[in-house]
Write a structure and sequence with these properties.
This protein folds into two domains: 117 residues; 181 residues, Methane Monooxygenase Hydroxylase, Chain G, domain 1 (Up-down Bundle), CATH 1.20.58. The longest helix is centred in the last third of the chain and has 50 residues. The protein has 13 helices and four strands.
Length: 342
């Protein structure tokens, strides 16, 4: 009778464990364990992890066994020969078919929870590029593109949309019989999104600033160089070649302005702070370029005038050379011995 009572109690205990774990699709969620998810060291971390929970639940089976083991058989207490003693309560429990079936059901529920947790991790791992990417990898990937305004704006919109999606994910969710606290993983992912968004804009700023400054450097350097007055005909010819090269570059340089200004349009659209120095360069680009073109026109006129001047000098030098040569020859012929003197 006592054996049956213990066995019935063990069966009921296992049945209660299964009832606590099992969930049908039409049943309301009733989690029995709280778990937290987060990202640490570039990996999804669950606390407590699934192994700990599995050991905790499987430990119920061990606890039932240990409790039954504490109660000896009457025959054992009465020192009846072993061959005449009944099996211990714990052995009866281990060998009972119904208990064995209930234990398999408990293990099946634990395995099902493992599968659900794997699915939960897979869901968040769809964003793993956020925490697995390094700064150098991100920077190299951006710089490997054409770095146009469309590239940067698409990236900004992508991270903004992702941040919105993550924000709308429930802070608490049910993963079979586990209540999952997602506040920490949401916060970590939003931090990663903010990091890459900030780096993307930093690269955009650096790229756009570099472009506008290089244009102004280009104008300053060439204005100085083209307005230097040649001192010789050789320098004049070299200056003319350089001038023609700059004229050829005018449409090429101008074609880079719209895509560069589009970069600043993106910065303005998303209200990114721009230093006054850069803002003034952007606003003054048209007038600065017109001034540069005017200098090219002045240089062209100067080179033409200078070339005419060199031509006059050459003519004068040629005439002077003729006079010198004439004087030389006249003097030379006058000093030649005549036939009479010979």
């Amino acid at each position: 009778m006592l054996s049956i009572a213990f066995l019935t109690s063990a069966r009921n205990s296992l049945t209660m464990v299964i009832s606590s774990l099992h969930r049908d699709s039409d049943m309301a969620a009733a989690p029995i364990i709280v778990m937290e998810s987060d990202i640490k060291d570039r990996k999804i971390i669950l606390s407590p992890d699934m192994d700990t929970i599995a050991n905790l639940l499987s430990g119920n089976i061990d606890r039932i066994h240990n409790i039954l083991e504490q109660f000896p058989r009457i025959g054992n207490k009465m020192k009846i020969p072993r061959e005449h003693q009944s099996d211990s309560f714990s052995k009866v429990f281990r060998e009972d078919l119904e208990c064995a079936d209930l234990i398999r059901n408990v293990e099946a529920e634990i395995k099902h929870e493992r599968d659900e947790i794997d699915g939960y991790i897979s869901f968040w791992n769809s964003h793993r590029a956020l925490w697995e990417t390094t700064e150098s990898e991100f920077t190299n990937r951006v710089k490997a593109t054409s770095m146009t305004a469309d590239i940067f704006e698409t990236s900004i919109e992508y991270y903004s949309a992702m941040a919105d999606d993550i924000s709308f994910v429930d802070a608490i969710t049910h993963v079979y019989f586990i209540l999952m606290n997602q506040n920490y993983i949401k916060s970590s992912i939003l931090d990663w999104i903010e990091k890459w968004q900030a780096l993307n804009i930093k690269i955009l700023l650096s790229h756009s600033f570099s472009l506008i400054r290089s244009i102004y450097r280009y104008m300053r350097k060439n204005e100085r160089k083209i307005m230097m007055i040649p001192r010789t005909l050789k320098e004049s010819l070299r200056a003319k070649e350089f001038f023609e090269h700059l004229i050829e570059e005018v449409p090429i340089k101008q074609s880079t302005f719209p895509p560069m200004l589009d970069l600043f349009g993106v910065l303005d659209k998303y209200q990114v702070d721009i230093p006054d120095e850069i803002r003034q360069k952007v606003l003054g680009l048209e007038s600065a370029w017109q001034h540069y073109l005017k200098k090219l026109g002045e240089a062209d006129e100067m080179l033409d005038n200078n070339r005419e001047e060199f031509k006059k000098i050459l003519i004068q030098q040629a005439e002077k050379f003729k006079m010198i040569l004439k004087e030389f020859l006249d003097d030379f012929y006058m000093k030649l011995p005549t036939a009479a003197s010979m």
